[in-house]
């Protein structure tokens, strides 16, 4: 069993397939660890990890519980306090973790099961045969197996080969950035444990949470019509640009960024329109390769985990790649649409912002009066 990609989807797929009786081998393009900022693993993603026989608390031990969300506007006025998914019946709540720590924990779990992970193996092609598949890599090597799992991300080579005229990633009109403070913030902060704060600034959206070590983890989403080009900003220019976006807002955003040595990003916020072909005879897509979702959904990691667990269960039960697609496609396409809607609400103009601020508390009360309106996301179990 060959797996192209050693990120969240690929490593969890390896764990799921090993549990189902296969002998997976992971081929990762990067030579070193991927950096990046932080993400949330929602209760549905944590529940899927438990289905692998893994203790989710051990996988996300470097993170911290974030069960609640406060929404505010650019004037600092609280609009709503909402649950951030869960708690599940067993007490599990959404957890926030640095991307690099989640990758490291998943790879440690794979290594404990004896799953080999090779680096510097960027997939360039594959050939399906009646008895298996051969994958080729940029370094001139190849590998043979019964099945190839394409977990190679948003710009998946596996997807390109399965969908020669298929969709490219779609820019959503938002940039993404983030970071971690490395010195005290010079304004008062709400330090309620487990509370994530999100703010509709006048010129950009901002989110932050205070970690147990008192550092502040944050992200920013400036609206921009055109995607950013590589090298367009130096790190210093980008940090100054972000600070300028939040000057004049009654938010701690500018102070938090000033207390950050280097802001991470900018990254373009992309998703994928519907991918027509998810699998061949011996090749299948999982995670962002099949259905990249906007970070605004809060479900990128959890959808990848669900995919991987579902694939392992389908194949372990004697099912087919088509069975896996039938179990996953409708759900993930609904989540992609949900994430796109959430992102579009971050960039309202002055009139739209006034309407939003007036209506948001009322709408949230109506939506939550009968429970979690996102229960269709959080209560799902593979």
Automatic annotation (TrEMBL):
The FAD-binding domain extends over 2-336
Q: One Pfam family of this protein, by short name? A: FAD_binding_3
Keyword annotations for this protein, in alphabetical order, are: Monooxygenase, Oxidoreductase
Q: Which domain of life is it from?
A: Bacteria
Name the InterPro entries on file: FAD-bd, FAD-dep_Monooxygenase_BioMet, FAD/NAD-bd_sf
Designated name of the protein? FAD-dependent oxidoreductase
- Native source organism of the sequence: Paractinoplanes deccanensis
Query: Lineage, please?
Result: Bacteria, Bacillati, Actinomycetota, Actinomycetes, Micromonosporales
């Amino acid at each position: 069993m060959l797996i192209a990609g050693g990120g969240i989807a690929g490593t969890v797929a390896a764990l799921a397939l090993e549990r189902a009786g296969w002998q997976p081998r992971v081929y990762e393009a990067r030579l070193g660890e991927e950096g990046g900022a932080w993400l949330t693993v929602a209760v549905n993603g944590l529940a899927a990890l438990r289905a692998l026989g893994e203790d989710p608390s051990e996988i996300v031990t470097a993170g911290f519980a974030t069960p609640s969300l406060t929404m505010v506007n650019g004037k600092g006025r609280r609009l709503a306090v909402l649950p951030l998914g869960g708690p599940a019946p067993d007490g599990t709540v959404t957890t926030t973790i640095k991307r690099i720590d989640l990758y490291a924990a998943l790879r440690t779990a794979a290594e404990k099961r004896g799953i080999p992970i090779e680096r510097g193996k960027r997939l360039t092609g594959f050939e399906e045969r009646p008895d298996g598949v051969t994958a080729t890599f940029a370094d001139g090597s190849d590998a043979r197996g019964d099945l190839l799992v394409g977990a190679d991300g948003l710009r998946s080579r596996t997807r390109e080969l399965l969908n020669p005229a298929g969709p490219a990633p779609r820019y959503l009109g938002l940039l993404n950035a983030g970071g971690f403070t490395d010195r005290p913030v010079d304004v008062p902060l709400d330090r309620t444990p487990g509370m994530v704060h999100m703010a509709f600034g006048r010129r950009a959206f901002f989110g932050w949470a205070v970690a147990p070590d008192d550092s502040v983890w944050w992200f920013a989403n400036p609206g921009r019509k055109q995607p950013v080009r590589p090298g367009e900003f130096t790190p210093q220019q980008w940090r100054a640009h972000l600070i300028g976006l939040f000057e004049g807002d009654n938010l701690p955003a500018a102070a938090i960024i000033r207390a950050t040595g280097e802001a991470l990003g900018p990254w373009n916020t992309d998703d994928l329109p519907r991918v027509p072909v998810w699998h061949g005879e011996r090749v299948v897509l999982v995670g962002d390769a099949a259905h990249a979702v906007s970070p605004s959904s809060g479900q990128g990691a959890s959808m990848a985990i669900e995919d991987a667990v579902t694939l392992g269960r389908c194949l372990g039960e004697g099912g087919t790649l088509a069975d896996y697609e039938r179990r996953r496609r409708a759900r993930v396409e609904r989540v992609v649409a949900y994430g796109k809607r959430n992102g579009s609400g971050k960039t309202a103009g002055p009139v739209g912002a006034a309407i939003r601020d007036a209506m948001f508390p009322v709408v949230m009360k109506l939506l939550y009066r009968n429970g979690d309106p996102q229960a269709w996301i959080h209560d799902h179990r593979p």
